[in-house]
Amino acid sequence: MSRLQETFARARAENRAAFVAYVCAGDPDFATSVEVCRALLANGVDVLELGVPFSDPLADGLTNQLAAQRALESGMTAARVFELVRRVREFSQAPIVFYTYYNLVFANGVDAYVRAAKEAGVDGLLTLDLPPEEAGEVKAACAAHGVGTVFIIAPTSPEERIAKIAATSTGFLYYVSREGVTGVRDQVAGNIPEALARIRAHTKLPTVVGFGIGTRAQVAEVAAHADGVVVGSALVNCIRDHLQDRARMVPAVAARAADLAAGVKRRAR
Questions:
Q1: Active-site annotation holds for 60
Q2: Residue of 27, 46, 60, 227 marked catalytic
Q3: DSSP one-letter string for 228-246
């Protein structure tokens, strides 16, 4: 079993959803980013979703756009992102998924990029702006190097498209619970149980739910139905809020992660 398969199987056995945490690699700088990852993985995070900083992150709201900007301004490059993964692998074997854009993969040569990601310790590749119809080269490279593919399903995805996305994914499926970009919302989107039922009719792969989830109560609401819950902006905000007080930044991220992680346990049935 892959690290991703083991992690989701363990979460199921423990009657809970997996906690997937997003942060941007290198935000606000390389050394601090390593410690942020350490804090997340020590406080209940099962899968680390690392945003690869990009100058034009179209799927991201302002919080994650500014995180990418901070990372780029601190000197993050593709090579430095791989190095960050290697640093995380020194203290954790938790699954790591790249949240990236196709230009970053294509510009470096698809096979070369996926091979480098695998060698660094990456388990999955979520390429936000790559539709499954055009993903043949990425899918082949991921299959050759043992990297899982992750594709997004939207609330507006029709039945035939869900089937196509499910057939192209090998790691897990990512259900975007609301239209628009990333960011904390006051309420969880509606119809998540119905959407998950539609997806599960086409696949046995785990399905995680993200976009707009930022409190323990919201995590618990989604965890009752999903195989995994993704939280990003609420954690990135902890970094943003402590840019002038770096000593408190990592402890703040750790505390927020621990609080959110408390929501993934399901009630006994």
A1: yes
A2: 60
A3: EEEE-HHHHHHHHTTTT-H
